[in-house]
Amino acid sequence: MKIIKLKTNEEVTKYLAELLLQQIESNPKSVLGLATGSTPTLAYHQLVKKYLVDQTDFSQVITFNLDEYIGIEPENKNSYRSFMNENLFNYININQENTFLPSTDDQNYAKYDDLIKEYGGIDLQILGIGENGHIGFNEPGTKESTLTHKVTLAENTRENNSIFFDSLEDVPKEAVTMGITSILNAKKIILAATKSNKAEIIKRLINNDISENLPASFLKKHPNVIILVDEDSGKYIEEMI
Ligand code: F6R
Asked: Which of 1, 2, 4 is nearest to 233 (CA)?
């Protein structure tokens, strides 16, 4: 894992956007693995800006999101489909038919991995990290062998995500997420963490051995991972570039 420590949240999101743009420039047909949540939001807005100002072309880009809630319709403002439409897809020239999220209808969740394979696999996967070490919605205890599957969300995850909902009761209890193996199949991975509530888990991720109790630790098995932190989330670790 290569660790890059920048000063501010803004610098992290600009850097993240830059890595995504480099990927698209090097291959306009790139397959991107995308995350939702507060960490990548500003990076997505940077991409919109690049489209509007520099006419960056997203017309051939393919995207696969990590996860989707069970029990809320795609049209609902809190679905991850709506999140992606509102923060990125609606404002760039991506072909909506090339934007995928895990299906919550069909019980054969791992079909999503077959679809990713059909498109040649993910070139660049973006990840955030939960305070409990989750990646995607792979909560502590998730096995390395998992493909896309249904999960019960940890209470801490529901509490953290309740900022996007009217109340905690409205936060779904279940979701479908790409598994650990689905994520490790990506060619390159960038995990971004900002703000001080991520400092403790980033310290554990860097210092601890690989374990199911800390799902993000499985990233140590991957040859091409960047961990991108700001001074708040990286306050317990040294700069290593
Ligand atoms: C989102 C996802 C989650 C988030 C993580 C961090 O698609 O899979 O793993 O990346 O919960 O969320 P934020 O960025 O809101 O702190």
From this structure: 4
